Amino acid sequence: MLRITVRKQNGIFAVSPIIRRTVIGALVIGILLFIVGLIALSTGPVSMSFTGTLSVLLAHLGIGEPSATATQQAVIDNIRIPRLLLALGAGAGLGVAGATMQGLFRNPLADPGIIGVSAGGALGAVIAIATGLAAISTLYLPLFAFTGAAGAMVLVFVVAMAGRGRMSMASLLLTGVAVSSLLGAITSAIIILTSQLEAQRQMVFWLAGGLEAARWDTVRIVLPIVAAGFIVILAFGRDLNLLLVGDDEAKSLGVRTGLVRSALITAAALLTGTAVAFSGTIAFVGLVVPHSIRMIAGPDHRALLPLSALGGGLFLLIADTLARNIAHPVEIRVGIITALFGAPFFLFLLIKNRSRVDAL
Amino acid sequence: MTARTTSATTATVNSPRGASLEARDAVLRYGDTCILSGTTVRVQPRVVTGIVGPNGSGKSTLLRALAGLASLDAGSVSLDGVPIGQITPKIRARRIAYMPQASSDHAFTALELVLMGRYPHMGMFQMESRSDIQIAEDAMQQTGTSDFASRRMHELSGGERQRVSLARVLAQQADVLLLDEPTASLDLQHQLLTMMMARQQADTGVAVAVVLHDLSLAARHCDVIYLLDKGRVVAEGAPWDVVTQPNLRSAFSVDAAIEPDALTGRPSVSLLGIGSTDETTSDRLPKRVHIIGGAGSGRDLMHRLQLAGHTVTSCVLGEGDADHETATRLGIQHVASAPFSVITLEQDAAHRKLVREADVVIVCEMAVGPGNLRNIEAAVEAKRLVLIERQSGAEWDYTGGSAETVYSGLSSAGETVRRDAVVDTVNTLY
To answer: What is the mean pLDDT of residues B17-37?
Structure first.
């Protein structure tokens, strides 16, 4: 498909095959994003025509006049655009974090929450709800969730490195799994022991993941963090390639493996923690998106990372649009949709590309 | 960017700066085990340096230390006198290329992997330039891997992967090339090609070090060899100084015959058996076995009985005789005589002494003439006698009947067995 062999080519195609692959992939995903984005902005309780939506968007760019009512404009500007941007930001963060973790751990099963970040975020959120703080200000919940995610990461690092003085990826992985289980158990206990039915419902709701927290002020926090994390990780794209090939290869080709690993894990955890803090635990994005991209564009992280960011955004936007509209007026949680549709889609890809999934 | 492209283009011709890499008194421990205990080696430009030694002798660790990948507990590694820790990893990667023994499974294509050899030459967000791709393709051509450039690494065989990895380190265009068992899973042709590649690199000025487990291969292709045992250099120098019987016995616990390779004159190793320090033969009693043969009838038994742990001696053998050659090579005591001469009385006396000392004497089914009649006559002094069954009807007595007479006397004194049962018979004698 997008696999292009390197041959002498002239003119504008005489660029790196990695760049070519990335640009073509980005164009395809970009077109899909535009279409899905238009649908996402136009559908919902206040529905409107695609041309109406377009005219509102164009008016923001100073082109033409919006052909929509004031209500419709307000819904798009204050509700749907922030929600779309949060979907893109969180999806991109999860996609990039997933691709990074899989490369770092050389493990196709690694997901963004592998070192306990998601479980920590969940515990933080549940505590915020249980203590009633979440009801006081809407910023408490993401703050607690993010603190939980960061705390879990630090805990995993400290335990994995205890008495060893250096970081072993295997012990990091195992510690991450153990800490996730522990924090998950505490989270479940708090949910069960919460006597108020409404708080309990809120907790379960949050755990299933959702983007209703999207407002301009949340988007202003999420997008810069995701952008910064993405750029840091992308700068290490070549190093990630080498780490996937082997430790000694990476070191002998000039990678400071310890430093690069720490930087990458921290950046990926930051992306995951941010996504979890503002959208709950959304399953499967970090797993299904990088693998799908890898099957099409190959394992080179310089193509894989940007395409996973775009793909993650697209995937979450599709899932959220479905979640909002599929059982109208009831809104299904987006985390349920990602798993419900993502898992069969992933299985389909696995069967179709059986020969390509033997190795990362 | 322009500057880099130019340098990369000229680098296609490859003019390395000729760096020398040295490990001095290197000590490295894993817990209580000392992997390297004061190892000193020097890898020099234009020289192919071989590192050999038994399993676990620290060869690979030494190579990793030279590459700057293993941190030492004591001692130092320096590149042109500069401690390797003081060189930034990226600069080091431009000067030292290292090929590990095996790599993990991954789905990069062969060309993508070879291009990774260019990473140290690229800036942070820079992509592979045309000249990088050209260098990678050249390296693949040199290693004969161009045909599978677009195949994924995890789909290739072990030997193919090894050759792609070799192309990767070549593409790195470093001044020092460190190869860890680059021929391990290669067929004969590609073993040779790989070693020729190492030679070519050395000829252009690169310092090459190769860990090898095949001593003959090392002796044939390396200029300098370091023999490692238990983390120590036990011998170093030219192949003839290092690949010697005593060295192999002490480092590998094997007995080996070492003779000049017919083609190159370099030492070539033929394995004879496990060194006497080993316990594999302790369950049966080693004996002193004397073989009366000649004209090639005894050579196979000499070898097999020696392998079985026995002390083997042989009869009077003319120079140039096939058995004489084998006996000399295996270090088997025998009585040498002029070619095709009749056995003298002195030779006979020396021979009879060997016969008397032997626990068992084996008489082979060689032809007997006036020249070697005394060989079988001496057999009457044997403590125990084993005769190898002769094919009925085959003519062997060229003495006009004397040999027949001696032989029938021997048959009644000893037991006659088939050739393929001789070793077993000797082993099971009490």
So the answer is: 88
Q: What is the pLDDT of residues B279-320, one digit of tens each?
A: 444 445 778 889 888 888 888 888 778 777 788 898 888 888
The Cα–Cα gap between B124 and B104 comes to 25
- Residue B219 phi, psi (nearest 5): -65, -35
% of chain B with per-residue pLDDT over 70? 93
Whole-angstrom Cα distance, residue B298 to residue B314? Answer: 9
The pLDDT, as a whole number, for residue A358 is 60
- Model confidence at A305, pLDDT cuts 50, 70, 90, reads very high
Residue A4 pLDDT exceeds 90: no
Q: Is A359 on the interface with B (CB under 8 A)?
A: yes
Question: Taking CB atoms and an 8 Å limit, are A18 and B128 in contact across chains?
Answer: yes
Residue contact B69–A251, C-beta within 8 A: yes
Q: What is the DSSP letter of B152?
A: B
Q: What is the mean pLDDT of chain A?
A: 88
Q: How far is A244 from chain B (nearest CA, A)?
A: 7
Q: What is the ipTM of this complex?
A: 0.86
Residue B278, pLDDT score? 42
How many residues are recorded in chain B? 430
Domains of chain A and any CATH numbers: 21-359 (1.10.3470.10)
| Helix H or strand E encompassing A290 | helix A285-297
The rounded distance, in Å, linking the Cα atoms of A158 and A162 is: 6
CB-CB under 8 Å, B108 with A245:
yes
Q: Cα separation of B19 and B80, whole Å?
A: 6
Which residues in chain A are contacts of B112 at CB distance < 8 A? 298-300
3-state secondary structure of B181: coil
Give the whole-angstrom CA distance, residue B176 versus residue B166: 13
Q: Would you say B117 and B136 are in contact if contact means Cβ atoms under 8 Å apart?
A: yes
Within 8 A by CB and 6+ apart from A267, the residues are A100, A229, A232, A233
Tokens at residue B357, please?
């000392």
Q: Using CB atoms, which residue from A251, A253, A359 is nearest to B119?
A: A253
**B255: which strand partners?**
B273
Distance in angstroms between the alpha carbons of the first and the last residue of chain B: 82
Closest by Cβ to B104, choosing from A245, A302, A356: A245
Which of A5, A248, A358 lies nearest to residue B154, judging by beta carbons?
A358
Q: What percent of chain A has pLDDT over 90?
A: 49
Inspect the interface and report whether the beta carbons of B106 and A299 lie closer than 8 Å.
Answer: yes
Q: Nearest-CA residue of chain A relative to B103?
A: A246
- Is-cis flag, bond preceding B260, omega within 30? no
Find all residues with CB under 8 Å of A356, minimum gap 6, and list them.
Answer: A294, A295, B107
B201 compared with B1, residue with greater pLDDT: B201
Q: Do A241 and B133 count as a contact with CB atoms less than 8 A apart?
A: no
pLDDT in the model for residue B284 = 58
Strands B207-211 and B224-229 turn out to be unpaired
CB contact under 8 A, A251 and B154: no
* Distance from C-alpha of B290 to C-alpha of B301, rounded to nearest angstrom: 10
Contacts of A6 in chain B (CB under 8 A): 111, 133
Q: CB–CB of A248 and B98 under 8 A? A: yes
SS3 B178: strand
What is this structure's pTM? 0.78
Question: Closest chain A residue to B132 measured between Cα atoms?
Answer: A16
Q: Judge whether residue A145 has pLDDT over 50.
A: yes
Query: Distance between CA B204 and CA B170 in Å, rounded?
Result: 12
Instruction: Determine the Cα–Cα distance for residues B11 and B173; give it in Å rounded to an integer.
Output: 8
Contacts of B139 (CB under 8 A, 6+ apart): B114, B117, B167, B168, B170, B171
